[in-house]
Every structure is written in C-alpha cells, then in structure tokens.
C-alpha cells in the first residue's frame, strides 16, 4: 500500500515505539531497516555529489551511528572516498556495522581528534552522530563536532541522518546548538521537531525515507497533521451564481486605537480580500478618518465604549489589531467577551485577557492567534519557555481558555480544545517577519469564520486554512525579495489563493 506520509508527523517516542512493530509486520529485520536507511542516504548523496567525491561520516554510539557505518561501506563500494570519525559504538547493530567496516579494511579516527582540516577536505559531510530522541544538552565532544561542521567552507555539503545532531526531535529546539544541514533524510516518519520551532534553520531540505514499512507504521494516529492545499480546495468552493453579500457574513473588527489605525485597516482589507460579505471596523475616534479614507469598502465606526449596536449586526468579531491597552480598549474587550458568538482574539486583546482573565460564555466560540510572546503572557511563562515546547504551550492555552488556538511562528501550530492531534503549517517565508503580518492573518481568520457556515468548515480547519493562506501569500509576495515585503503586499495574493477553483497554480 502506498501512503503519502509527509502530512503525518509523530513524536520521537511514537517512532521509537512503533518502528520495530512496523518492521516485524512487514517481515523486515532491524538490520535490514538500517541497510535501507543507509541506502536511502546514499541515493540522495549520489544525486547531489557524484563519486569519487570525498565523504566524511561522523558516527555516534547508537543506531544513528550504525546507519553511518553501513553508509560508509555502501558509499565506498559505489566509488566514493570515505573517511569515518566516530565514537565507540554501543548498540549491538552499531557494533556489528562498525566491525563490518573494519573487516573490509576501512579506517576510523576518533571523533575527539576531528579537526577543521578533516571537515574542510570533505566534499560531503554526513552527520550520523545522535539522530532521533535527543532530550538533553549535547556533551562538549558533540558540541565541538557540531561547531566544526557549521564552520565549514561553503563547498562542504552536509547531510544529517534522521535528525540533525543537537536538534530536539520533539520540539525543534537546539540543545544548545545543532548541525546546520543542507539536507536531512529522516526515517519512517516526520518528527514534530523537524517541522516547527527553529527546525527550518537546521534541517535544510527535508526528505522522508519510509524504508518500506509505512503501511504498518502509519496505522498509528499522528501527533501533527500538515496543512495541505487540498484542505483549502476542499472547503473554498465556487460560489453560487445567485449568491449575495448576506451569504458570506459580516465581520466586525474591533481595534485601531490612537496611532494604530494601520493594524485595523490591514485586518479589514484582508477580510475583504478573503471573501467576507461585509466588514465593519469599530475604532477610536482618532483613527476613524484615516481608516475610512484608506478603504472605501469598509464601514468604519468611531466608538467611545459602547459596541452593543454593532455587535447585534455582526456574524463574527475580530478583536485586537491596533487595540492598545488603554481603558477604552479594556472596555471593548469586556463587551466582546460577553458576546455570544464566534470571536477571534489577537494582539492586545489577548494581552488584556492575560492581564485580567474573563470567563468565556458557554455559547461563545473563541479563537486565539498569539505569537510566542502573547502566548507566554496567557500562560504566565517566559517567551523562551513557550519556544522550548511550542506544542505543549499550544495545548495548555486550548485547555486553559477552551479556545481554538493558532500559535504563530515558523511551523505555525493549530489546535482544537477537543482533539488530541494538532495541525502544523509547513509553508511560509521570513518575509512575514514584519509588523502588520499578524493583523492580516486576523482578517483572514475573520473572513473564513464569517463564511464558515456557508462553506461548512470545522472551526479548527478555519484556523488551519487561514494559517496556510497567510503563509503561502507570504511566499508569493516575497518572490521579488524577502526584505522589504509589506503585509499589504499579501492582499492581492490572498485573493488568488481563496479562489482555488479558478485554476491559478499555487503549489502543493
């Protein structure tokens, strides 16, 4: 059975516990699995660097090192010049593989004696030191080896086997440093730490080798599911020819405090471009003129502290873009918190809830879109605590506030308070690292929420689709350069992306 595996992502423990059973079900021994892993790596190397290139393979004590020992034999047989730097093997499979290398006349240097000269003379450097399951900081021996790899000259191409050494395979955190690979060939399944946190900095191109046991392993429910373009096209259908604006909801955006009219404007423009039937903005009187003049399709209302009339007309509410933290802002937060409907909370609205929590009405649906700093305030943690385990922080917010939550950042995560698994967005661009990007995202969320009933989109999938649209719009807008891309540049791209039925090619 063939399975598309890149959308299913697992913890290190799930892979460790499941791989032996999966191999047994497929009548594959662990030694054969190691042989297949090494062959998968050789296939990638042959595609990138032809023999007789110089290979330097760094082998650790466990089965990840065993993969490296087997790869050394296969690569030498394929015509490569191979040098190994290794620690003493400890696992039984690694010991057997190391002995097989020595039996065919292969030489080994101690990893502790590795120098910059060894690294600089290699055309390809293979990191087979630690791999999957690292849960503590690297020892000095491995820190020094990692630093030598990362200081290599630009000609040295680096392949990490399974997981770059030093990267926590569950959290995507460097412990405290990690190999910066050109390519990572990961075995059997993608691991959570390869798709979120700082993973993109270290993994390079990510290739999955299922080793022929996927049909058995993937009976295990994943921890994360990757958001794919198919989810967008599944839900964003062509509109009925007789449709009218009332079919697509009325988004009320509450924000735009003094000096912050742009945030509310961006959210409103994004909601319009993503198909909301009507969009109103409730803002401070000082921001009213600027917003109204900038986008004629927006209905802009200056409010003192009374939202009651606007709330009666709204389908969904987005609160936070440019809201600020004044008494005026708090009064609006308290009114929206009592509204019995779907509310997307962002920016200073989240900060206000963190400072003075308010219980969610049973009939309300809350969606949170924090960045790590806002998540930290919601959980009374530090930002580094949140980034140390993004999935754990996401889950805690869902539980504490009974809110569907989208945790921004590389490898954006989305979770429902009712479900065990979560979504991860593997798309995006550093071009989104600019003020105002989050305001665009909140407008996308609002527009999709407003159309949610018509399109029959589950709430967690609303957030998942919004994350994907925002990320891919960022990629498209950055094609002329990541630096200098503005959040407003995403608006035209969003219009293309929310109309997948029109056949405009947008990638996988």
Automatic annotation (TrEMBL):
Residues 228-501 form the YjeF C-terminal domain. Its EC number is 4.2.1.136, 5.1.99.6. It holds the Pfam family YjeF_N. SUPFAM superfamilies: Ribokinase-like, YjeF N-terminal domain-like. Binds 1 potassium ion per subunit. AMP binds at residues 408-412, 438. GO terms for biological process: metabolite repair; nicotinamide nucleotide metabolic process. Its cofactor is Mg(2+); K(+). It comes from the Bacteria. PANTHER family: ATP-DEPENDENT (S)-NAD(P)H-HYDRATE DEHYDRATASE, ATP-DEPENDENT (S)-NAD(P)H-HYDRATE DEHYDRATASE FAMILY MEMBER. Catalyzes the dehydration of the S-form of NAD(P)HX at the expense of ADP, which is converted to AMP. Together with NAD(P)HX epimerase, which catalyzes the epimerization of the S- and R-forms, the enzyme allows the repair of both epimers of NAD(P)HX, a damaged form of NAD(P)H that is a result of enzymatic or heat-dependent hydration. Bifunctional enzyme that catalyzes the epimerization of the S- and R-forms of NAD(P)HX and the dehydration of the S-form of NAD(P)HX at the expense of ADP, which is converted to AMP. This allows the repair of both epimers of NAD(P)HX, a damaged form of NAD(P)H that is a result of enzymatic or heat-dependent hydration. NCBIfam families: yjeF_cterm, yjeF_nterm. HAMAP family: NADHX_dehydratase (MF_01965), NADHX_epimerase (MF_01966). This is Bifunctional NAD(P)H-hydrate repair enzyme. It comes from Pseudidiomarina maritima.
């Amino acid at each position: 059975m063939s399975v598309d595996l890149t959308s299913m992502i697992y913890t290190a423990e799930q892979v460790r516990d499941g791989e032996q059973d999966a191999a047994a079900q497929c009548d594959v021994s662990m030694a054969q699995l190691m042989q297949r892993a090494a062959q998968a790596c050789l296939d990638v190397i042959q595609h990138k660097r032809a023999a007789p290139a110089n290979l330097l393979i760094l082998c650790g004590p466990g089965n990840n090192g065993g993969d490296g020992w087997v790869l050394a034999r296969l690569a030498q047989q394929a015509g490569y010049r191979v040098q190994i730097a290794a620690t003493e093997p400890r696992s039984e499979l690694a010991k057997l593989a190391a002995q097989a290398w020595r039996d065919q006349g292969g030489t080994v240097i101690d990893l502790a004696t590795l120098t910059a000269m060894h690294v600089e003379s290699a055309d390809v450097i293979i990191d087979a030191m630690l791999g999957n399951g690292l849960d503590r900081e690297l020892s000095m021996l491995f820190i020094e080896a990692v630093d030598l790899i990362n200081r290599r000259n630009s000609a040295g191409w680096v392949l990490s086997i399974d997981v770059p050494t030093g990267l926590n395979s569950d959290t995507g955190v460097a412990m405290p440093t990690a190999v910066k690979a050109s390519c990572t060939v990961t075995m059997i399944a993608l691991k959570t730490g390869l798709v979120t946190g700082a993973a993109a900095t270290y993994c390079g191109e990510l290739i999955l080798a299922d080793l022929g046991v996927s049909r058995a392993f993937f009976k295990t429910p994943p921890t994360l599911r990757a958001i794919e373009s198919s989810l967008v096209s599944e839900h964003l259908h062509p509109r009925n020819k007789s449709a009218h604006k009332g079919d697509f909801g009325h988004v009320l955006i509450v924000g735009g405090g003094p000096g912050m009219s742009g945030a509310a404007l961006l959210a409103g423009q994004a909601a319009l471009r993503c198909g909301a039937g009507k969009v109103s903005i409730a803002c401070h009187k000082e921001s009213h003129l600027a917003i109204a003049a900038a986008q004629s399709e927006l209905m802009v209302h200056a409010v003192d502290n009374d939202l009651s009339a606007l709330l009666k007309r709204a389908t969904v509410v987005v609160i936070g873009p440019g809201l600020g933290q004044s008494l005026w802002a708090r009064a609006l937060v308290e009114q929206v918190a009592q509204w019995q409907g779907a509310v997307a909370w962002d920016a200073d609205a989240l900060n206000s809830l963190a400072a003075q929590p308010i219980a969610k009405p049973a009939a309300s649906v809350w969606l949170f879109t924090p960045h790590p700093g806002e998540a930290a305030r919601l959980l009374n943690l530090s930002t580094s605590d949140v980034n140390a385990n993004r999935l754990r922080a996401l889950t805690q917010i869902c539980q504490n506030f009974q809110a569907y939550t989208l945790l921004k950042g590389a490898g954006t995560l989305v979770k429902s308070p009712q479900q065990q698994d979560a979504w991860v967005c593997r798309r995006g661009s550093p071009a989104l690292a600019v003020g105002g990007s989050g305001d665009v995202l909140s407008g996308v969320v609002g527009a999709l929420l407003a159309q949610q009933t018509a399109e029959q989109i589950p709430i967690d999938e609303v957030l998942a689709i919004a994350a994907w649209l925002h990320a891919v719009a960022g990629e498209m807008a950055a094609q002329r350069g990541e630096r200098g891309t503005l959040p407003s540049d995403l608006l035209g791209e969003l219009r293309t992306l929310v109309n997948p039925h029109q056949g405009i090619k947008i990638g996988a």
